[in-house]
């Protein structure tokens, strides 16, 4: 596990893994979005509670996860607005604020089906405050959604009529799960 900016030594390897995973369906991220991951990593590494877990083999970085503590002022960029729209401000405060937010989980195709994702999630959430961790994924990523269910993560049901493009999950041991 790496905490804070120490992970920046691995930026190139992590960006390569990110590109391989997220350029494929259903994500279909373009070269610019993939390039922006390395830029985001620079800023994210300075977030409160930032940490990275990664799996390596003789082939290099097989997968990684990044996380940080969700700030009191819940962000509005990226998919955060969709999270607030689905859960409402009160549930965001109760479930997510101060919890460990898993931002990225990427496992290269050759490392899937061997427990790599499960191990990365276990490592990165091991010291989550009061076992409170959460993540979101795209609703169209049905295999990913099914994987989180299989790993014991709990889907937070949207408020009536608010379902959108993201699915929010709480960690298996989250006290509100």
From TrEMBL:
PROSITE patterns for the chain: GNAT
SUPFAM superfamilies: Acyl-CoA N-acyltransferases (Nat) (SSF55729)
InterPro entries named among the record's database cross-references: Acyl_CoA_acyltransferase, GNAT_dom
The protein, known as: GNAT family N-acetyltransferase
Coiled-coil residue spans: none
Domain N-acetyltransferase: 5-175
Domain of life: Bacteria
């Amino acid at each position: 596990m790496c905490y804070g900016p120490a992970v920046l030594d691995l930026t190139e390897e992590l960006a390569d893994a990110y590109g391989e995973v997220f350029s494929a369906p259903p994500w279909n991220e373009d070269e610019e979005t993939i390039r922006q991951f390395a830029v985001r990593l620079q800023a994210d590494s300075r977030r409160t509670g930032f940490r990275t877990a990664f799996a390596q083999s003789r082939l290099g970085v097989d997968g990684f996860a990044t996380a940080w503590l969700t700030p009191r002022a819940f962000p509005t960029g990226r998919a955060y607005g969709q999270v607030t729209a689905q859960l409402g401000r009160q549930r965001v405060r109760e479930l997510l604020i101060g919890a460990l937010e898993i931002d990225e989980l990427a496992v290269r195709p050759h490392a899937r089906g061997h427990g790599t994702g499960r191990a990365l999630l276990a490592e990165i959430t091991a010291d989550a405050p009061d076992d409170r961790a959460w993540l979101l994924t795209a609703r169209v990523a049905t295999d990913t959604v099914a994987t989180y269910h299989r790993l014991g993560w709990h889907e937070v049901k949207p408020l009536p009529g608010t379902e959108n493009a993201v699915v929010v999950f709480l960690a298996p041991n989250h006290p509100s799960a």
